[in-house]
Structures
1.
Amino acid sequence: MRKIIFDLDVLRSFVTGMELGSFAKAADRLGRSTSAISAQLKKLEEQAGTPIFRKAGRGLALTEAGETMLAYARRLLDLNDEAATAIHGAELEGWVRLGLQEDFGETLLPDVLGRFARAHPKVRIEARVVRNAELVERVTSGKLDLALAWSDGFRTAHSDRIAEVPMCWVGPVLGAVHWHAGSGEPLPLASLEAPCLLRSIATKMLDRAGIGWRISFVSPSLGGLWAATAAGLGLTIRTPLGLPDKVRQLSPGEAGLPLLPKLDLVLHRAEAEASPATDRLASIILQAVRQTVEATPQGRTFADAPVTMSSRPETVG
């Protein structure tokens, strides 16, 4: 069998196009023409010896072989970039200011900071775990370089919509949910202090379903919300990411609760042209988020969406 050696430059164009949802955007990001990107994709299919794309409406979607190729391409590029970092990592200096939503403070932050610190010991990181509204305010005012936050569609000037995550109703692990939509009693709702994006979505969906509700517990922190939910003081709404063991995700339709929409996860940047240290940290965050979301039922990153070669602006998802 002929040994196949994939071109890393071609793989980078492939992965970038899938991540951005458009190969026209990938061409802009990589400083190439769309025809050059198209030629690279043709070369990739020739090297693979099988189609990696199929028609999906006006765009393209991955075949089963294409999905396999994408997974390996990411790993090859990550390994390549890690090798480059190991050789030149000591050259990165300075500091990066990072903000994350509370859901990722215990699950994502230790891994991201550990990987970055080992590769770039001369870079200092200032990390802040705060609420969504504060993250957006701080990145737009230049107080943060990067911010990983939930979004209901709002985007800052320099941001990437990187994943879509299902929302879910959350209740205690111990004991049954004693409330039901048909009981006539208002739903006891445990919530974070306003303004809270997920609280607003929860009440909107309950109102739309004609289900009464009352705020039974308010907490300034996610830890307090988990404690109240575990104690049975009320149900709450969150995503499956970062749920502690003392609470559980309710099944769809359980207790007559309405189904919930999905929520966008966005990486905001303070500047279009960031420092090399900021770019490297953003890359590690994107990789960690991708692995976390893809392990979540119904969660997906936007590489799963159809992509296009069109030069027109393309909305993904």
2.
Amino acid sequence: MRAAHLASVPHCRGAHCLANGIRLHYLDFNPDAAGAPILLLPGITSPAATWAFVAQPLAATRRVIVPDLRGRGLSESRAGLGYALEDYAQDALELVDGLGLRQPVILGHSMGARIAIRLAARSSGVVSRLVLVDPPLSGPGRAPYPTPLSSYLTAHEAASRGATVEAFRPLTPGWSDPQIALRLQWLPTCSVEAITRSHAGFHEEDIFPDLPFLDVPTLLVFALRAKVVSADAASEMVRRMPNGRAIGIDAGHMIPWDNLDDFLTAIAAFLDHG
């Protein structure tokens, strides 16, 4: 079923590489396209295949690479693997280097946006632009992330036990049945250790000190119907970034699932017109 799904995606190939001492799997959309490529970093329980419907339209004119983050999908997963923000950022940096990506755009959603922030802050000159989509802003001295760990673990257990689309539909209003089925298919590939330790990192690791070091044009996209990034928090982030701007989209935290058209329009305007 996985192979059939990926085979239906035009201009896409799956591959593995070694980065930061581990094996990473990634999907490569439109690999021969010119222009700055996009490295799309998913969130805490979103393997690469679940982002194909977003990568496809983005890849109409650009190369788009979507990795399975460590501990997820087809990437390496084993006991004792590190899941700190530094680990993820170094993975992404070495993926950029290993694939020869020159001045990529880094687009990160949720945890992926936190990774993008750390990568760009610690590696000046590597990235051309940043798109930060609803990053968790929790950390020391800040309000906790609004989605508790138990929600992730309950969903993971249900998917691992063969939950049906019908059972998940009330939990994912607005999602299409194929999107729900794809999530159920890939969610069990996410390591429980990876989920647990990454969720803890939301509260133990602070991304705000990194913001002044984001020296490239940066777009913050936040969900108006979620509690992850408030309008006040978005304004605070923009004040701290040297070249940042923000846009709110009428959607929940999984913005492209709720409002793909407005999401793509916002990103296209930023990438094409600055």
3.
Amino acid sequence: MTTRGLRAGLVGLGSMGRHHARVLAGLEGVELVAVVDPMGDKNGWAQGAPVLSTVDELISLGIDYAVVACPTALHEEVGLKLAEAGVSALVEKPVADTVDGARRLVEAFESRGLVAGVGHIERYNPALRSLRQRLEAGELGDVYQVVTRRQGPFPHRIADVGVVKDLATHDIDLTGWVTGQTYTSISARTVSKSGRPHEDMVSAVGQLSDGTMVNHLVNWLSPLKERFTSVTGEKGCFIADTLTADLTFYSNAAQTTEWEALQAFRGVAEGDMIRYAIPKREPLLVEHELFRDAVLGKSQDICTLRQGLRTVEVAAAVLESAHSGTTVQLKTGDDTADGV
């Protein structure tokens, strides 16, 4: 496998699939063997690779792994076929449209010892990768709160899920990943204003396993496109803009005092602001490089299916909370030790 390079296939040639095709076609050590899309390649996005009608045709060509970028509702069906054929897979997020479907995929790939990951692209954003490293190094001290805002106009490519499963799953995954913690509770409210059967705005408040407070605001109803993550803690606040891949730190300049009357008050004060200079490689390319290396046994720096399952579980809890008007408690276990 390592001498001839990896043979890869792609399932789905839509708005995300076309980007996967572009990256796969130029990925070192990988040959894009074929693309599956029943609609064909009317836009010329397949990078010259043959376009097939079925996943079975792709499997018959002999591939080492496939990227699954078809509609969310088809992830389970396609993933199970690949697992049964012994083919590793990188599945676009969310890993499945139901918790049970995600669990079946986890079992199918894990029971066969196959490499499988979920395309939670924010894990490969330079700003968030730098933020995670700095949190792990203790540069913020104790973490108090994570706030995300992810809003913009409705993307017409989405037809099968609402804003929680499509957009909020980004924030759920990145929050657990950058902090290394798991969600223990969530309370949410949703609205639907665009005339579609699914929700198009959600506001959620949650708590992580170490007590960190979480706030998510996600919608498809704003003309302003925003991708904002802030992490506030003992030593200040990190702000990540994943549209520009910028990371900024605002330090807490509060100084200790020997003035007896003030010793009981522990506040914060505005301090230095630092915008970090960080390398800005394309997140999708980094994601593909790391998944390729995982298939080759060289790396484990991917979002696993089990982590993707946890994200789907939290998203389901968000929708349950919004429907019931109650706070939903989430179970924690050893299988979520890497966050989410």
4.
Amino acid sequence: MAGCHCHHEAPTKTHSKKFRNALWIALVLNLSLFLIEVIGGMQSGSASLWADSLDFAGDSFNYIISLIALGMSLYWRANAALLKGSMMILFAIFVVAKVVWSYSNGQPPEAMTMGFIGVLALVANIISALVLYTFRDGDSNMRSVWLCSRNDAIGNVAVLLAALGVFGTQSALPDLLVASIMAVLGFSGGLQIIKQARAERRKVRYTPVH
């Protein structure tokens, strides 16, 4: 590609291997919880739980992209991060639409199922966040997977709070509030990733060849 100097340094083999192993752990956890939350969200009627299952699916796709991009030049890793950031923003818009739809129906979800699956999801995301914590200050590709896991852990705490709120009030509003919070987190995280990825692409394009 014109203006792209693909000779730029990729991550060291040791660093890449550790990051790859962390990605595989996170990928397996996210795929497993995606299936669990899809079933649990359908049974409980929870918008936040169902939205979280879609988030697990999106994160799994993000980890797959990261695994493919690992070892490529900074330019192409930044392109992969741009795609992931865009997906996070699209997901946020989708969740907002789901909240509006759920609000129009007004049926409160089943709190016990929400709480049980929320605990499982929180444990999985804490493990993912811990194994990816070392890479939180890396390039946009590494930072994006850390932000995904961090946002998911925050979202799962919110799901548990929503389950308590639904149980106490017998209202769908706590569930819808959590889904809205997830949308804000996804939108904010996506913007951060896109901003950093664009800066990295500009840096690569305008760095002179030695």
